[in-house]
Amino acid sequence: MSQQRSIRVPRLVPQVCSVLILLACCSCTDVAAVQEFARASRSVGRQFQPLANGAIRSCERATSFVLKGQQPPDCAFFVKIEPPLLAVNNALFSYISSLGKLAGLDASGTGTSLTTIGADLQRADPRISESTLSKANAAAGLAAALVNVLASGYQQKKMIGIIENANPSVQQVAGFLDEYAAFRYSQQLRDEQSREQLFCAQWTDPDVPEVKREPIAVDLLNRKCKADDAMQKQKLAAIASYQEALRSVAAAHQQLYDDRHHWNAAQLVTQLAPATTQISDAAQAMSKAFAEE
Amino acid sequence: MKLSALDWRNLSMLYQDLANAVLRYRVANSKTLSLEEKDSLNLAFGQLLNASETFANEALSQALVDIEASVKNLQVVTHDAIEAVQSLAKLKSVLDIAASAVGLASALLAPTPGTVATALSGLVTAVQAAKG
């Protein structure tokens, strides 16, 4: 009886181990897409400050285009509103970042000390029998696989709870940043554009007496107006990208929430990859348009 | 009458469109308008744009107040996530300690001085990592 058991167990142990190790590996890769997504989101979050500063500068430039009788825009508002907006942006992207950290926390190394036990045993006792060694290795593999499954299961459970609690707020805050904060910044740039257009129209208008007296200045102003227009369009496109990125963050988070009880690696990659690419592109566009001002 | 953030935002967009319509008219009819008419249009453009900006500021300020609770909730959830990261790190330590202890148990079952020493050192390392 005991002899029969000793023959069957060593045959089954490697197969059981392989299955468990495979299971452990699958559960770990599930969250890699979330990690990528969080990394891209952080890069967009960091670009908010240059964007906010860009709006203040845009307002200051707009003030320089004020014509006789017009009131200057209220640039103090942008200075006053910047800290709370930065706090809101920070709240959203800190959350995404913490989600990424949770997803990226590597539980796969858990129990690695067990996997070396066979080598340790052999090093300690070179005369150790093959049979004892294979039993020790099998037991170690089994235990390592078990602790991995346990650790990553805990990780996913925590993530699900957090995503459930945060989803309504993520939707609202991302919506606010898109529809109110970025909208206001975009509007400011369009106002600067319009004010400059009128300024240029006025100071290149032959009916205006000063224009006839200053032909060189008029030519220079014309060139400046065209160059500024191109720059403003680039900034407006960057803000539109940021707004699109916020929509991607909200949509991807909603997707994570909707599918929270049946995540799988392939599906997560399919769902999050377009959003991740879009968000990375937005970060680059914002960096190019605002960081070097 | 109390307007919502969305109302202010919509009003702001309408005024901006109106200001731009005045601008387009001023530029398109530059040859036919008198200097006085141009000045009046310039003034109207400025007033419409200022009104649009004031409405947009109102919309943003009000929306900021409206989402205060959501921002606070996000901060709480972020704190929870960070705590989860920390407790997960602790769990990892606990599991490492447990795994090392199992290793020591295996070594003790087939005792040779070398295996016990190695397994014991593994356990000590895991405990030290958990403390650090």
What's this model, at a glance?
Chain A is mainly α and 293 residues long. Chain A has a domain at 31-105 and 163-291. Chain A has helices spanning 2-29, 32-46, 48-63, 76-104, 112-115, 117-124, 130-203, 209-213, 215-258, 265-291.
Strand content range of chain B: under 5%
Give the oligomer, counting copies of the same chain as homo and different chains as hetero: heterodimer
Spatial separation of the terminal alpha carbons of chain B: 61 Å
**Which class best fits the helix and strand makeup of chain B?**
mainly alpha
Radius of gyration of chain A over all CA atoms, rounded: 30 Å
Radius of gyration of chain B, in Å, reads: 35 Å
Main β sheet profile of chain A: none
Largest interface: A-B, 76 and 68 residues
β-strand number of chain A? 0
Backbone structural class of chain A: mainly alpha
Mean pLDDT of chain A: 77
Low-confidence stretches of chain B: none
Contiguous low-pLDDT stretches of chain A (5 residues minimum) are: 1-9, 12-29
Largest sheet, strands/sense/barrel of chain B: none
The count of domains of chain B is 2
**What does the average pLDDT of chain B come to?**
81
Helix content of chain A: over 70%
Please tally the β strands of chain B and state the result: 0
Overview of the molecule:
The complex is a heterodimer of chains A (293) and B (132). With 293 residues, chain A is mainly α. Chain A has a domain at 31-105 and 163-291. Chain A has helices at residues 2-29, 32-46, 48-63, 76-104, 112-115, 117-124, 130-203, 209-213, 215-258, 265-291. In chain A, α2 (32-46) runs parallel beside α10. The longest helix of chain A has 74 residues, at 130-203. Chain A is elongated, with a radius of gyration of 30 Å. The N and C termini of chain A lie far apart (82 Å). By secondary structure, chain B is an all-alpha fold. Chain B has two domains: 1-66; 68-132, no CATH class. Chain B is built from four helices and no strands. Chain B has helices at 5-28, 35-66, 68-109, 113-131. In chain B, α1 (5-28) runs antiparallel to α2 (35-66) and α3 (68-109) runs antiparallel to α4. The radius of gyration of chain B is 35 Å and the shape is rod-shaped. Chain B starts with a helix and ends with a helix. The model of chain B has no long low-confidence stretch (mean pLDDT 81). Chains A and B meet through α4, α6 and α7 of A and α1, α2, α3 and α4 of B.
